[in-house]
Amino acid sequence: MTASRTDLFARLDALGIAHTTHDHAPIFTVAEGEGMKDDMPGGHSKNLFLTDKKGQLVLVSAQANTRIRINRLHSAIGCGRLSFGSPDLLHEALGVRPGSVTAFALMNDTRGKVRFVLDTALLAHEIVNFHPLDNNATTAVSADDLVRFACDTGHEPLILDLGALAAAADAAQ
């Protein structure tokens, strides 16, 4: 069963994680949210649900403006070449639909099938912002509490400097 926004907030409260939520019109891309972010302090995320040919599932949460080289990421995390996971696989694994991908959806991966990759640029912010399982709101928590939440769901994040990985890949070409 997939968690609801209410379930997410109850879990955050149970963990003692302070959170603030701003309701807004549905946002499907980072670009669509540009104007709304002005009133929300902190780092804003982009979240990618990826898979390799062997079925390894990866959730990447990065600073919204971080450039990610998906064709190079696999070697840094030790899996096969990555591509975007299908909407059905996303819903099966994380219980959300495209446009609503979020680190908070890790609470729906009770079988621990998804690896979590977290960008250092996002963690450089005291506050980080994610959709609360649906793209019609944004929820802010501290960066430390995001990591604590992920660990509580059984997903120890692999913390990488995704911008540096992209820059190194560009320099190698």
TrEMBL record:
Domain YbaK/aminoacyl-tRNA synthetase-associated, first and last residues per copy: 24-149
Example GO molecular function: aminoacyl-tRNA deacylase activity
Superkingdom to which the source organism belongs: Bacteria
Keywords, sorted A to Z: Hydrolase
One Pfam family from the record: tRNA_edit
Keyword Amino-acid biosynthesis found: no
Annotated CDD domains: PrdX_deacylase
Stated family: Belongs to the PRORSD1 family.
Protein name (database record): Ala-tRNA(Pro) hydrolase
Source organism of the structure: Maricaulis maris
